[in-house]
């Protein structure tokens, strides 16, 4: 269910922002004006990513470098459509390698540059954690 005006969704969005999640999972972007396809110029979209590499800590380290990324660096995964993963692909697996069985586990795996956001999530009352998850599942 994608009720983007419900109280739970809006509360979850506020928690997402308060937890610093939006500093890497940037909600809104706009394309430039130089595409060969005019229809793509100046388009607003909501990827919930900055498309950059971030140090995610030892817990998510792959054990080997990937091109210019160190084993601890991962590109910020886009969150758009994250709540439809099972419906679209028939499976559930989150993070870069699918190790998290649900969104909460994915949040709890965050470390390194995202450690403060992980700690923020862990400090929330269960009701607020549920609202944040509801928000993410509604993207």
Automatic annotation (TrEMBL):
InterPro entries: Cyt_c-like_dom, Cyt_c-like_dom_sf, Cytochrome_c_Peroxidase/MauG, DHOR. It holds the Pfam family DHOR. Keywords: Heme, Iron, Metal-binding. It comes from Marinomonas rhodophyticola. Residues 7-139 form the Cytochrome c domain. It comes from the Bacteria. This is C-type cytochrome.
